[in-house]
Design brief:
This protein has 6 helices and 6 strands, in the order ααββββαβαβαα. By secondary structure, it is of the alpha/beta class. The protein is globular.
């Protein structure tokens, strides 16, 4: 039984990520009452959830990576954004900014979408759901301003749910690799 190389796995993993965004993420966001999920990651200090949302061809976050998921409700698909210069192999819609302009780009997107609840990966109980650093949280709160910052809550159960739910095809690939 042969295990696929990373190059061979990359298109499969990308399709799984996209399918999970379409099928798993909307239900998790509704269940947790979060209509916007912001994941902030730094180069070589990735949020634990970031790796499961990036293609295999991505070694690490780029400088600062800000991923935003917005669920507009009404059965519409969850919108996926990357604030900055990268679309991560076409998985995200980029909100183009310079490295120094990411916080401004994020603020404009949040103003436009005006979410009710903003989830961030901060948790006392779940290490895998505690990816935002103190510095990045401080900068996020400053960028959002008081009105949006008041909407922030822990996305721990959203992050844990995202990591624990697997598609049938992912489970089959795991079984194959274990053989």
């Amino acid at each position: 039984v042969r295990v696929l190389s990373h190059r061979e796995q990359a298109p499969l993993v990308k399709s799984w990520i996209q399918k999970r965004f379409q099928t798993v993420l909307p239900n998790l966001m509704m269940r947790t009452g979060i209509d916007m999920w912001i994941i902030v990651s730094r180069e070589y200090n990735d949020d634990p959830v970031f790796r499961s949302m990036a293609p295999l061809t991505t070694y690490s976050s780029r400088r600062r990576t800000i991923l935003v998921f917005y669920n507009p409700g009404g059965g519409q698909p969850v919108q996926r954004y990357s604030i900055g210069r990268f679309d991560y192999d076409g998985i995200y819609t980029p909100v183009p900014t310079s490295n120094d302009g990411q916080w401004d780009g994020l603020r404009k997107l949040v103003d436009e979408k005006n979410p009710k609840v903003i989830g961030i990966n901060e948790s006392d109980a779940w290490n895998h759901a505690d990816g935002i650093t103190a510095n990045e949280k401080r900068r996020l709160v400053e960028a959002l301003g008081p009105a949006h910052a008041a909407k922030i809550k822990s996305a721990e159960m959203l992050a844990v749910g995202w990591l624990e739910v697997k598609l049938p095809e992912e489970l089959e690939a795991y079984r194959h690799a274990m053989k």
